[in-house]
Amino acid sequence: MADLKTFRFVYGGTTLYFGPEATEKAKDHLVGKKRSLIVTGKRSAKDSGALDDVLKVLDELSIERKIYDKVRFNPTVEIVEEIVEELNSFGADSIIAIGGGSVIDSAKLAATAFAEGRKPEEYLRWIARASKHLFLVAVNLTHGTGTEVDRYAVATITRTKEKLGTAVAYPDVSIDNPKYMLTLSKSQTMFTSLDALYHSLESAVNPASNVMVRDLSRVATEKIREHLKSAIERPRDIETRYMLLYASMVAGIAIDMAGTSIIHGLEHGLSGVVPELEHGAGLAIIGPEFIKLLYSVRPTETWEVMRALDPSLRPSPDDYEKAGEALRRFQESVGFNLRLSDYGFNEQKIREAVEVSWPLYDSRRFPGLPEMSKEDVVSILRKLL
Ligand SMILES: [Fe+2]
Questions:
Q1: Residue 152 gets which letter from DSSP?
Q2: Domains: count for the chain
Q3: Among 141, 229, 251, 336, which one is most buried in terms of CB atoms within 10 A?
Q4: 233 and 132, same structural domain?
Q5: Residue ranges with CB less than 5 Å from ion ligand 1
């Protein structure tokens, strides 16, 4: 049995508790609060046992609460605005987000928009700069996004289908408890871990990366390679969940420090146009093709992480095809073989997605990457239908 200790550390603006006793240990941070709005989705907070644990803590501390449970994946600004209204009408002094990326990101945006009296869209368009937020606790229910340790939030502007990311708020307190991951479905297990894998790869390859980012990314990739298959086969094994959660958490720090790259830029366009596309699935469909580009331009940095997937890779641009193959083979080994057409994409939707994501794609390009036209990107995506 591995060492599954619970530990605490501070990163950014977040005090994070990690491990099977994380929820109990984080409790003191709520002392003195009077009214908490719990933000969550329909089922996972209940199924995982997290909601019951949080309600117990609130009872012990005599904190009144109201539950808002309408967050769906790929959340919209309308959802965030509804949460802000709930915060106002309830007179909340704190917000407790229990969920994955969609829930925690919606809560980050709402906590900021509420405290500053501005529209969520202004943050997503970087018109407003966030400087304060309502006290926010994030109870993380997936091992993917890393949003519990970063300041970013992503939401979709419905009328333009733009899925945009912005820097708003570190949660004040985050809880990474692996026991809440035991009820994740097979596909959630796979997609969220693949999201964490791409956080590792893309932050390492980003010119803003540093030795720490690449070390964290390599460790995350090793853990995902080592444990993802067994988590899919034995979903209720706490040790594999602990390791995958650790991987996604350190990959979250990596993206907070260095950002993502063109794969995330493009994926946001795809799932903006087809909201049924899970973020991790979108990344994994396009990733093996686009990692080749990144490997050919920044072979050393990409190799530092990707050698965890294929030790025979060399830090040479000549290995770019091999790198794409290594990623594809790994994904297939855990049972991932989806394509864009499985989500109803066709030529027209691909074009729409490229159009929508172009500013994001372009902003994540970095010196040395070959000049690509929209038509070039469309033709790569067409092969993935
Ligand atoms: Fe992501």
A1: E
A2: 2
A3: 251
A4: no
A5: 195
